[in-house]
């Protein structure tokens, strides 16, 4: 079954996932597979028994994923990925403030969160904190404010799975916060996304699970305009939060390459991998 799935993914990638500048047009067309930086990847404990690290690395190679933003529950998975980095795989590790899944609901009020973040940070290689979940006024919790202040003090990014209200509160905690907005609000209207991009220069939008970017595989006019107007402000990711997302990894990457191919090559490359290089300094 895995062999069949891999073959199917290769067929899809060869049809919709091929990217290179068109001669004289500046638009992406079929010549070379576009490298991808996966800006929302979890290697949680659940997939480990059936998807060992060697297979994860092989999956990245198969689908030309050349870099990842690693954030896992617990942080053991992130550390394993970071230790496995190579010249072919750039790993940007983030501290996740969760030990177990129920921490999603309680981390913002749990005094152990502060200790977890501080202990992991001492390892010396983390570039951010998250992914963490926040809804509405839960972002006002003192522990959240401490987390934002810690990130600003130590020049870390925040990877926030947040609704619109929580996002605004995070920036109220510190206008200097640098936030990668997981899922770009899921369904926040494009006009409001643009308003946030204008209002918060230290905001980047990550597009996993993002609703409404395409219709029937074709970029909508609203999202095409946003991508072309703000090409430096978007990232893409797989969000492998459950095992099924790992099973679909090839098709997720192929879907991204499908709509990236509809953008000018320079814009597509920024969203696919160049923005990550600029942000994280490779």
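Sequence proposed for the structure above (282 residues):
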């Amino acid at each position: 079954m895995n062999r069949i799935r891999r073959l199917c993914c290769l067929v899809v990638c060869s049809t919709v996932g091929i990217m290179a500048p068109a001669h004289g047009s500046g638009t992406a067309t079929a010549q070379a597979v576009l490298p991808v930086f996966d800006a929302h990847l979890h290697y949680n404990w659940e997939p480990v028994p059936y998807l060992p690290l060697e297979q994860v690395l092989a999956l990245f190679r198969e689908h030309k994923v050349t870099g990842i933003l690693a954030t896992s529950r617990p942080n053991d998975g992130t550390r394993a990925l970071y230790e496995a980095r190579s010249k072919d795989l750039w790993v940007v590790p983030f501290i996740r403030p969760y030990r177990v899944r129920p921490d999603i609901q309680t981390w913002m009020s749990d005094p152990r969160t502060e200790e977890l973040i501080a202990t992991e940070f001492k390892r010396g290689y983390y570039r951010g904190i998250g992914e963490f979940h926040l809804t509405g006024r839960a972002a006002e919790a003192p522990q959240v404010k401490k987390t934002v202040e810690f990130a600003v003090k130590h020049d870390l990014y925040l990877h926030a799975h947040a609704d619109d209200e929580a996002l605004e509160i995070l920036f109220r905690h510190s206008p200097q916060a640098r936030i990668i907005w997981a899922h770009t609000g899921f369904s926040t209207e494009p006009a409001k996304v643009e308003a946030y991009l204008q209002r918060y220069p230290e905001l980047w939008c990550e597009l996993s699970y993002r609703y409404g970017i395409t219709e029937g595989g074709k970029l909508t006019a609203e999202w095409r305009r946003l991508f072309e107007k703000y090409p430096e402000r978007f990232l893409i990711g797989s969000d492998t939060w459950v095992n099924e997302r790992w099973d679909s990894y090839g098709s997720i990457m192929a879907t991204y390459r499908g709509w990236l191919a509809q953008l000018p090559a320079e814009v597509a490359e920024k969203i696919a991998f160049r923005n990550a290089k600029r942000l994280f300094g490779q």
